[in-house]
Design brief:
With 553 residues, the protein is an alpha/beta fold. It starts with a helix and ends with a helix. The protein has an eight-stranded parallel β-barrel with strand order 1-2-3-15-18-19-20-21, surrounded by six helices. The protein has a five-stranded mixed β-sheet with strand order 7-8-11-9-10. Strands 5, 6, 12 and 13 form a four-stranded antiparallel β-sheet that branches.
């Protein structure tokens, strides 16, 4: 019996005693124990997420890791989720399949020590305090569009194909350029429109160009990249067109004062995600090579490290606009038993209502929504089997957003197969795509600033609160697995008492809690706060063999 098995054996003995003392049925045939243990304050998962990109400079030496893990233990956290593959596909450990952070072109990453193994370091420290370590991988996001790097960029045929619908700007000679957004932050190479309804002046930095338009005519061009930072007023009878990088160059090459501009036209295209304005390059979940790549990453981690679990993040489609590749068209047509005559319009079309996109469902919209969710379900089912064959002691879990009525846009149904949602986009048999029963535990993001339903005062649906999102999470999963609510600490900046209330609400309603993220605890110096609210040690339900066995059966 190896060391890990011995530890597991003695842990099981201790936990069995705890279970008996608290009178909780371990082997209840109807599964009611999974529901009842919510009431047991001694059985709560307390998880702290260590985001890779956000905490690089806090985790780049063994001494820093030792300090952070010690604080984690002192706060009675029983589980660490260590993010080890970021959305760009880079990792902080030696890998046969993933590029190391030190190889990145991104200056935020490439300074990271090449010969330093963060995974091994965190595991070594966590074992001193009997804290579980689960390794998180960003599954279908594996490339940086800005720096054009990462596995998804290196393998263009892996990328999702985006149904790209944009408002475009057209100048007098007919030259056009896509508009990347309205009244939002201007990113690299983007063209953004700022309107008087939302801006007095443009909120941009000096590294771009501003085109002032009144009644459809260009009245001024301010190239801040040359003249320096300057406030540019947004006219009441027009707008300001702001360009950076490639968009700035298009403006310099094509427009001049006195010309007419039009921003009402729409352009539709199918293009690889690497050619869009998004930051992360997603991969097609049904591409066999993509799936094999993700499983290689998982197998490497399970075989090389003594870990407690694998966590999947971004195990989904980018958004509602993917994937419209020929492979997806072929497989979808196979699933419905007929060929589509209009692609992608038979799925949906897009119109603009002012500056906002509106999706108009086509004749196969519901079938498409279900088909995408089924693809993700099948991936989870296969991944579970692969992991159990590699090492059945390694737990399988994932993070999702709690907003189930909206999460179909990512192609995910994280609920129970017994949950039948009543949504206008859901086919009658959409419930078949639920994957909760394939998980050892599930984390749902209760990412709302209002703690109770009453605080919403009817402004929004009930699940736009921590309390409501917790209720919805438990309803949708129907106790098919352990469900832990996640809190986004940035939403509680300068609100420590509300943060405490949110923690208590989550633990009252659910099997445990996940805190996102370590960086904010450090930033706000909230370690004492955690020690106060987590004043006693608890046991994570997923670590109790009897409960886990029941879930898996």
């Amino acid at each position: 019996m190896n060391k890990k098995k011995i530890i597991s054996f003695f842990s099981a003995m201790i936990v069995t005693m705890v279970v008996l003392l608290t009178s909780i049925p371990v082997h209840a045939a109807d599964g009611s124990n999974v529901e009842n243990i919510i009431k047991n304050k001694n059985m709560k998962a307390r998880i702290l997420w260590y985001d890779l990109s956000a905490n690089l400079d806090s985790l780049d030496t063994p001494e820093k890791v030792a300090d952070i893990v010690s604080k984690t233990a002192q706060a009675n956290i029983n589980t660490i989720i260590l993010d080890v593959k970021n959305r760009s596909g880079f990792v902080p450990y030696p890998s046969e399949f993933s590029p190391h952070l030190s190889e990145s072109l991104n200056p935020k990453y490439n300074w990271y020590p090449q010969d330093y193994d963060l995974v091994e370091t965190v595991i070594e420290e966590a074992k001193k305090y009997d804290i579980e370590v689960h390794l998180n991988i960003n599954v279908f996001s594996a490339g940086d569009i800005v720096y054009q790097e990462g596995p998804a960029i290196d393998n263009p045929d892996w990328q999702t194909i985006v149904y790209d619908v944009n408002r475009i700007v057209t100048e007098e000679d007919g030259e056009t350029h896509p508009i990347h957004g309205f009244d939002q932050s201007r990113g690299t190479d983007q063209l953004v429109v700022y309107t008087p309804e939302n801006n007095d002046v443009t909120p941009t930095n000096r590294w771009g160009i501003e085109v002032v338009v009144e009644d459809g005519t260009i009245v001024d061009i301010v190239d801040q990249a040359i003249i320096g930072d300057r406030e540019v007023p947004v006219p009441d009878n027009g707008y300001v067109l702001s360009g950076h990088g490639k968009a700035r160059q298009w403006i310099l090459d094509n427009v001049q004062v006195g010309e007419q501009l039009d921003i009402a036209s729409v352009e539709t295209d199918l293009k690889p995600v690497s050619e869009t304005a998004g930051p992360a390059a997603f991969m097609n979940p049904i591409n066999p090579d993509v799936r094999e790549y993700t499983w290689n990453v998982i197998e490497e981690l399970v075989e090389n490290y003594d870990i407690d679990g694998i966590t999947l993040d971004r195990a989904r489609y980018n958004n509602i606009y993917t994937d419209f590749s020929e492979l997806s068209r072929e497989k979808f047509e196979e699933s419905i038993g007929q060929e589509l005559t209009n692609w992608p319009e038979d799925i949906f079309t897009v119109e603009f209502n002012g500056d906002e996109k509106e999706i108009l469902p086509g004749p196969f919209y519901q079938e498409w929504i279900k088909w995408r969710a089924q693809n993700i379900h099948d991936y989870f089912e296969e991944t579970k089997e692969i992991m159990h064959n590699l090492d059945s002691d390694v737990l399988f879990n994932t993070y999702v957003g709690s907003w189930h009525p909206l999460y179909y846009s990512e192609g995910v149904n994280w609920g129970s197969k017994d949950y039948h949602p009543d949504y206008d986009w859901a086919a009658d048999d959409y419930n078949e795509t639920g994957y909760a029963d394939h998980l050892d535990f599930l984390m749902t993001g209760l990412y709302y600033g209002d703690v109770t339903i009453d605080e919403l005062e009817g402004r929004l649906p009930y699940w736009y609160s921590v309390e409501g999102a917790a209720d919805l999470s438990m309803e949708v999963t129907d106790y098919d697995t352990f469900v832990y609510g996640s809190l986004y600490l940035l939403q509680y900046q300068d609100r420590p008492e509300d943060f405490k209330r949110a923690i208590r609400m989550t633990e009252e309603k659910m099997h445990g809690i996940m805190l996102f993220d370590l960086v904010y605890i450090e930033m706000y110096d909230w370690w004492p706060l955690l020690e106060e609210v987590f004043d006693k040690k608890t046991k994570a339900p997923h670590s109790i063999p009897g409960f886990l066995k029941q879930l898996r059966s």
